[in-house]
Design goal:
InterPro entries: NrdE_NrdA_C, RNR_1b_NrdE, RNR_lg_C, RNR_lsu_N, RNR_N, RNR_R1-su_N, Rrm1
Distance between the termini: 30 Å
Strand order of the largest sheet: 11-2-3-4-5-8-17
EC number: 1.17.4.1
CATH architecture of the domain at 149-170 and 410-596 and 633-651: Alpha-Beta Barrel
GO cellular component, one term: ribonucleoside-diphosphate reductase complex
Oligomer: single chain
Strand content: 5-15%
Helix content: 40-55%
Enzyme class: oxidoreductase
CATH class of the domain at 149-170 and 410-596 and 633-651: Alpha Beta
Function: Provides the precursors necessary for DNA synthesis. Catalyzes the biosynthesis of deoxyribonucleotides from the corresponding ribonucleotides.
Structural class: alpha/beta
Largest sheet: 7 strands, mixed
Radius of gyration: 25 Å
Length: about 725
C-alpha cells in the first residue's frame, strides 16, 4: 500500500458524521474515531520506517531531502538526545483535522508522494536544530516549545526549515514604487522574483502620477495607476511557483490620490475587463484628515503626486496629508481635483460589501504609534506588517543611484491556550524570539536589493498569537467582554515585555542594534513612560486567577528594562505582529489568530476530498455558550479586543470584520432594518479608527445562500 493506493478509507465518513446530531447532541466522539482511523488506515501503513534516528537522517541527507550542513553543527550524541526527548513527550494530535492538515501540507514525503518521511516530532526536530544554529540548549528549548504547541513558526519557516529543496523562510514582502518608468520596471521584476520565491507581495502605488497628468518632455499624458495594477496582476499570475500556488499581491493607494475612484472600481463585479483586477488585492491608506472631512460632510481635494513631489522634493507617500492639507489646497502649484468625502466613504463601503476589499490602513494612527525613526507608508498582503521604508532612485540602467529600504517579514505565533500553561512564560517567549531572529539573520533576498538592505538594517520579526477565542471559551469567558479585553491587554503586554527583554539581550551579546536605534523612542526612554506607571496589572479577580503563577512586571521592572535598553539598545526594529493564521491553527487545535470563530463545527471544502468538519477546540456542553460565531457578534466587541492588543503591538494586527448580509437590527442600536447597509460599515470603520485600530483586513459577509464574500487569500500569513 502507498498514499496513492489508499482504497476504501473510513476516516472521512467518520469525520462527516460530526455534522449529524444524535438526539440533539453533537457526536464529538466521531472526530476521535476519525483521528484513530486516519492513523490506522493512512499514516501507520504509509510511513517509511527506519531502525534509528541516525539511519533516518543518513537516508534523508543522502537522498537530498534534508540539508546536512545544519546537522553537522551538532554531535551525534546530542541529535539522539533531542530525538529521544521529543519521543518522550508523547505528542498526540487532538483532532482529525489537525492530523490531516499536518500530513497533507507539512510532513515531508517521498519524491513520488507515496510515503511519509516525517512525523510531527520529526518536523519539530528539524526546525529546532535548524533555528538553534548549533546551540544545543536553544535547540532543546525550541523543541520543547514547539512539541507542546506553545510556539508555531509561520508556514514558510515550519515547512522549509532543514529541507534541501525549499523556498524561503520569510512570509511576505513590501515594495514601494516611485513616480518613474525605471522604478515601475524594476518593481515588476522584483514582484516576479519575490512571487517565485514564495510569499505575498505588498506594493504601494501612491507615488505614481494620476491618469491625465503631464509627462515632462513629451506630448500626451500619464495613464495612471490602473494599467500598472494590471501589469502587476499579470506578473503574479505568471510567477506562480511552477503552478504550485497562485502568486499573491496587494496594491495600496492613498485615499487622496486622484485615481482613487478608478482604483476601487477595478474590483467591481461589473467592471470592464480592460480594467478589472481579479486576483490582485486592494488596500487604501487613510490619513486622519479623511475621517474629519467625511464626519463634517465636506468636499475633499485629491492631489497630484507629480506636482506634490515637484513642490516638496519627496515622493507623495512621505507627505503628511493631515498636516499639509490646507497648505496643499492653497498652493496654486499643486494640481488638484475635488470630490465629496462621504461619497468616497460610501464607495469604500459598497466595495467592501461586494468583495471584502479594500483593506484599510489608518496611516496616521500607525505613524503616531511608531516608536522608530522614519515613516510607515503601507502594509502587506494581510495588513499586519507595518514598518518604515525609504524610497530608492534608479537610473536608466536599472541600477540603484540611491538605495532605499523595503521590507521582508518573518512570522511566528504563540498559542495562547498552551503558552498560558507554560512552566516559564518569559523563557518561552524569549526562546521564540531567538527562533525568529535566525530567520531575519539568514534572509538574503539578493534579487531585490532594497529588501535585502532593509532586512539587514532592521532585523525585524513578527511574533503574534492564535487561540484567543479557544482560551476564553475554555475558561468560560465571553469574547469581547470586559474580562476578555482585560486578559488580552495583559497577555500582549507580556509579549511586548519579554520580546523587548530578549531583543535587548541579543543587542548586548552582539554589540549591535537596529539601524537608527539612537533616533527611536526606545533610545530616549519615552516609549516606556506609560509602562513605568505600573498600571498594567490584572485588576479583576478572574484575570488575576488566570495569570496566577505568571510573572507580571511592575513599574520598577519596566524602569529597569528601560535603563538596559537605553544603555545597550535593541536588536530588532520591530518585534510583534498578529497575522490571520488559518491552517496552521488547526494543527495547534485552537481558533485562528485572535478573532472569534465563525462556526462551532467548521465546514471546510478540501480539494478532491469534499467536506471536512472541525469542531471548535474544547467544544463541550459547558463551553458551547461561549463559542458564539463572529457572524452573530457585535463587531465593536471584536474591535475592543483588538484595540487592547494594539496598545502593545509595535506593528499591526489582521482585524477581519464579520457581518451577515441580513444583519439583525437588534445587534446594533442604529439599525432600522434587518439588512447590511453601507452605513453599517462606515460606522464600524469609524468606531475602529476612534479606538486606535491601525488596520482592517477583510470585511467578510455571510450571505443568505451560505456563501462568504471576502475569503482569505494570503497563504503565507494565513497558514
Amino acid at each position: 500500500m502507498s498514499l496513492k493506493e489508499l482504497g476504501d478509507v473510513s476516516y472521512f465518513r467518520l469525520n462527516n458524521e460530526i455534522n449529524r446530531p444524535v438526539n440533539g447532541q453533537i457526536p464529538l466522539h466521531k472526530d476521535q474515531e476519525a483521528l484513530q482511523a486516519f492513523f490506522k488506515e493512512n499514516v501507520f501503513p504509509n510511513t517509511m520506517q527506519f531502525d534509528s534516528m541516525v539511519d533516518k537522517i543518513n537516508y534523508l541527507v543522502e537522498e537530498n531531502y534534508i540539508e546536512k550542513e545544519f546537522l553537522e553543527q551538532y554531535s551525534p550524541e546530542f541529535i539522539e538526545k533531542l530525538a529521544q526527548f521529543l519521543k518522550d513527550q508523547n505528542f498526540q494530535f487532538k483532532s482529525f483535522m489537525a492530523a490531516y492538515k499536518f500530513h497533507q501540507q507539512y510532513a515531508l514525503k517521498t519524491n513520488d508522494g507515496a510515503y511519509y518521511l516525517e512525523s510531527m516530532e520529526d518536523r519539530v526536530f528539524f526546525n529546532a536544530l535548524y533555528f538553534a544554529e548549533g546551540n544545543e540548549q536553544l535547540a532543546l528549548d525550541l523543541a520543547n516549545e514547539m512539541i507542546h504547541l506553545r510556539y508555531q513558526p509561520a508556514t514558510p519557516s515550519f515547512l522549509n526549515a532543514g529541507r534541501a529543496r525549499r523556498g524561503e523562510l520569510v512570509s511576505c514582502f513590501l515594495l514601494q514604487v516611485t513616480d518613474d518608468m525605471n522604478s515601475i520596471g524594476r518593481s515588476i521584476n522584483s514582484a516576479l522574483q519575490l512571487s517565485r520565491i514564495g510569499g505575498g507581495v505588498g506594493i504601494s502605488l501612491s507615488n505614481l502620477r494620476e491618469a491625465g497628468a503631464p509627462i515632462k518632455g513629451y506630448e500626451g499624458a500619464a495613464s495612471g495607476v490602473v494599467p500598472v495594477m494590471k501589469l502587476f496582476e499579470d506578473s503574479f499570475s505568471y510567477s506562480n511557483q511552477l503552478g504550485q500556488r497562485q502568486g499573491a499581491g496587494v496594491v495600496y493607494l492613498d485615499v487622496f490620490h486622484p485615481d482613487i475612484i478608478a482604483f476601487l472600481s477595478t474590483k467591481k463585479e461589473n467592471a470592464d475587463e480592460k480594467v478589472r483586477v481579479k486576483t490582485l488585492s486592494l488596500g487604501v491608506t487613510i490619513p486622519d484628515k479623511f475621517y474629519e472631512l467625511a464626519r463634517n460632510n465636506e468636499d475633499m481635494y485629491l492631489f497630484s503626486p507629480y506636482s506634490v513631489e515637484l513642490e516638496y522634493g519627496v515622493p507623495f507617500s512621505y507627505i503628511d496629508i493631515t498636516e499639509k492639507y490646507d497648505e496643499l489646497v492653497a498652493n496654486p502649484n499643486i494640481r488638484k481635483s475635488k470630490i465629496k468625502a462621504r461619497d468616497l466613504e460610501t464607495e469604500i463601503s459598497k466595495l467592501q460589501q461586494e468583495s471584502g476589499y479594500p483593506y484599510v490602513i489608518n496611516i496616521d494612527t500607525v505613524n503616531r504609534h511608531n516608536p522608530v525613526d522614519g515613516k510607515i507608508i503601507m502594509s502587506n498582503l494581510c495588513s499586519e506588517i507595518l514598518q518604515v521604508q525609504t524610497p530608492s532612485k534608479i537610473n536608466d540602467s536599472q541600477e540603484y543611484v540611491k538605495m532605499g529600504t523595503d521590507v521582508s517579514c518573518n512570522l511566528g505565533s504563540t498559542n495562547i491556550v498552551n503558552l498560558m500553561k507554560s512552566p516559564d512564560f518569559g523563557r518561552s517567549v524569549r526562546t521564540m524570539t531567538r527562533a525568529l531572529t535566525y530567520v531575519t539573520d539568514h534572509s538574503h533576498i539578493s534579487a531585490v536589493p532594497s529588501i535585502e538592505v532593509g532586512n539587514e538594517r532592521a532585523h525585524s520579526i513578527g511574533l503574534g498569537a492564535m487561540g484567543l477565542h479557544s482560551y476564553l471559551a475554555q475558561n468560560l469567558i465571553e469574547y469581547g467582554s470586559k474580562t476578555a479585553v482585560e486578559f488580552t491587554n495583559i497577555y500582549f503586554m507580556l509579549l511586548n515585555y519579554w520580546t523587548l527583554v530578549e531583543s535587548n539581550n541579543i543587542a548586548r551579546e552582539r554589540k549591535t542594534t537596529f539601524h537608527h536605534f539612537e533616533k527611536s523612542a526606545y533610545a530616549d526612554g519615552t516609549y516606556f513612560e506609560k509602562y513605568i506607571t505600573g498600571t498594567y496589572q490584572p485588576s479583576s479577580d478572574k484575570v488575576k486567577k488566570l495569570f496566577e503563577g505568571i510573572f507580571i512586571p511592575s513599574g520598577q521592572d519596566w524602569a529597569d528594562l528601560r535603563d538596559k535598553v537605553m544603555t545597550d539598545g535593541l536588536y530588532h526594529q520591530n518585534r510583534l505582529a498578529v497575522a490571520p493564521n488559518g491552517s496552521i491553527s488547526y494543527i495547534n487545535d485552537v481558533s485562528a489568530s485572535i478573532h472569534p470563530i465563525t462556526q462551532r463545527i467548521e465546514e471546510r471544502q478540501e480539494k478532491k476530498i469534499g467536506k471536512i468538519y472541525y469542531p471548535a477546540a474544547g467544544l463541550a456542553t459547558e463551553t458551547i455558550p461561549f463559542y458564539k460565531s463572529a457572524y452573530d457578534m457585535d463587531m465593536r466587541k471584536v474591535i475592543d479586543v483588538y484595540a487592547a492588543a494594539t496598545e502593545h503591538v509595535d506593528q499591526g494586527l489582521s482585524l477581519t470584520l464579520f457581518l451577515r448580509s441580513e444583519l439583525p437590527k437588534a445587534l446594533y442600536e442604529w439599525k432600522t432594518e434587518n439588512k447590511q447597509t453601507t452605513r453599517d460599515l462606515s460606522i464600524l470603520r469609524n468606531y475602529a479608527y476612534n479606538k486606535g485600530i491601525k488596520s482592517i483586513y477583510y470585511v467578510r459577509t455571510f450571505t443568505d445562500d451560505g456563501e462568504e464574500v471576502g475569503a482569505n487569500q494570503c497563504e503565507s500569513c494565513v497558514i
